[in-house]
Amino acid sequence: MTLHRSQLAILGGTPIFSEKLYVGRPNTGDRQSFIRRVNDALDRRWLTNDGPYVQEFEQRVAQFLGVRHCVTTCNGTAGLQLAIRALGLEGEVIVPSFTFVATPHALQWQGITPCFCDVQPDGFHLDPAAIEAAITSKTTGILGVHLWGRPCEIERLQFLAEQHNLKLLFDAAHAFGCSYHGRMIGGFGDAEVLSFHATKVLSTLEGGAIATNNDAIAREVRLLRNFGFADGDTIASVGINAKMNEISAAMGLASLERLDAVVEANRQNYDAYRTGLAGINGLRLYMYDESETNSYYYIVIEVDEQRMGIDRDTLLQVLHAENVIARRYFYPGCHRVPPYTFTKAGILPQTERLASCTLSLPTGETVGAEDIRKICQIISQASEDAEKIRWSLKRKHFVRSDYPTSICLQK
Predict the structure, then answer these.
(1) What 3-state DSSP class applies to 277?
(2) How far are the Cα atoms of 157, 217, 239 from residue 213, in angstroms, in the given order?
(3) Contacts for 39 with CB less than 8 Å, ≥ 6 apart
(4) Which of 233, 302, 344, 347 is the 20 to 30 Å CA partner of 69?
(5) Average pLDDT of every residue of the chain
């Protein structure tokens, strides 16, 4: 299908997709395998409290990651909270602002101040130089985020943590199935926290896990996720209920069985985007390191307004008008959202630049090569029609009758 200048939906044409195409539409795993396990769990009437499927899922994930321990949780945010508690973090913890709000929430929820730090000038992970400048006498840890399946500069963060006697925790919600220097994400730092949310490459419907090679941390996390019970009568810690249930674990096992197929579909989609977006002026597709193991689950582009002719948010409007529900990851940066505007975040120029120009595009098993060809054509046409789109949006803005003709600013 070839688009013509008058066909963009934002300019009055018919949307190219009749149904909405979402970022992160869930993969459903091996359905028959899932249903078989659900029926088995129902027949056994062992639905939670470390059932056999939870135990099997933990063992298989630990083996996949090459770590000593995998402790599952009801979701990734609970996993972060438990890991933070088990590590004894307090005071201030250095964290990127360019992340999902769950990362700083897990700190703030426990009375720990997230110290927002800028990302690298040529990347989107924590900048080690900025970290060192942010360390104070109140700093107890560094919480790095492996964003979009690409790992942090782990060795440099590890060096800083050891040099300043800090704990090192990683939010690996985006990084299951990805490697760093040939070693799977999951076994770095003091612990790493995974997410198995429905939108992730490996899903348990809702779920998460703490992966670690530290026996003491694993033992403490297991206590904390089950009200602090050391046995049936002994409460050894002030814990919460953060256990994974058997139905979620059944989905996790079914998802593991189809993981290779999901990753291969993602890889094909990534290659299709590379081909389809090549040559569009002002557009950069974030590439994967082919020397590493990748899930290829996040298709992220950066829009250069000066070269493309339209900014990221205008391109987002263009795509949404065509029923391509692209997402701004992560806007406007955690330090700009109301719960954290009280923090002394300072100026984070690289974070704010990325928050204004990056966009995540649909991928996964429900997105095919023809869908991607159309998405790339929409983006290419938007670049060609940039001036016309800007004029059209400006005209829609000014023809509204409810706009005031003058504004009186008062002190």
Answers:
(1) helix
(2) 18, 8, 21
(3) none
(4) 233
(5) 93
